[in-house]
Amino acid sequence: MIESSSPAKAILFGEHAVLYGKPAIAVSLDRRMTIRVVRSERYSVDRRPLSIRRNRYVKWALENLYDGPPLAVTTSSSIPSASGLGSSAALSCSVAAAIGQIGGGISNESCASDAFDIEYNVQGRASPTDTSASTHGGGILVSFKEEDERLWSLSKGDRTWHVHNLPIPPMTLVVGFTRKPSVTPIQVEKVANFYNKSRFARETIEEIGDLVWDAVKALKGRDLVRVGELMDRNNSLLTILGVNSRELQKLKDAAAPHSYGAKLTGAGGGGSMIALTDRPEEVAGSIERRGGVPFIVSISEKGVSASGRIDHDGH
Ligand code: MEV
Hints:
It is globular and about 55 Å long. Helix 2 (87-102) packs across helix 3 (108-123). The protein has helices spanning 56-65, 87-102, 108-123, 129-136, 184-197, 199-220, 224-241, 246-255, 280-289; strands at 2-13, 24-39, 44-45, 48-49, 71-77, 139-143, 150-156, 159-165, 172-177, 261-265, 272-277, 293-298, 305-308. The relative contact order is 0.20. With 315 residues, it is an alpha+beta fold. The strands form 2 sheets. Strands 1, 2, 3, 4, 5, 6, 7, 8 and 13 form a 9-stranded mixed beta sheet that branches. A 4-stranded antiparallel beta sheet has the order 10-11-9-12.
């Protein structure tokens, strides 16, 4: 049997703008997607036949990255799906790592590349932010120019993203899940339509790009007050882009009195917000009272992992 596991992620800064040549910062969280893979008579996921409707990510990966006898995949996850916390990226990484492990193991760079291929092909337009965060663990900076601590570079079409290690100071985040799904392709298309039509949208994306570089400085300087201010500002700019929602804003407002700052995270429209705080219990209580599901999380330094092997007799 092969077992592989990858962490959830939260985008601290720069979601959406990272699809338009701007940088983004993401961290991985201490919630994980684990999969187990064994040889089998026929392909299955969680004991049901592999299905294009239920298992788009696993199916694309098996059809395009794997060549061998049928496999049975079982999943177990502590990442709520469609929550903006990267459950599909963590699944893509875990599947890529498991397939790599069948062939004797792969590097993190290959895993990040394969996982990005899975997300990109299933989801349409996507950046490698989520899958690279889930692969690497800790913090990453994704940018269009090479910086110190480059991990890998990934290209699609005429676009190349450089992914860097970004040390993150000790911090506690509280996630507030709205209980409403965040459907990434819908939000990405919404922003793309606005971007193509409006100079104001393009200027807003520019401003997010500048803000992310300020956030890199603030994180390197361990200035959590400034990080919080920038989170609030990033949230306002995402609101202008149209990806905030009443539920997200309600949870952000609930967190505000006890936080350095807070913002929606990921594609938005639903899903989750994150608050940076040193009073996590108070923030979690406020989020819960306003109808959200709070998770107190910390940053996980552990990225993707894979172990085990599949013998010829199928075990
Ligand atoms: C989704 O978690 C983040 C987006 O920027 C899309 C992407 O980068 O692939 C909205």
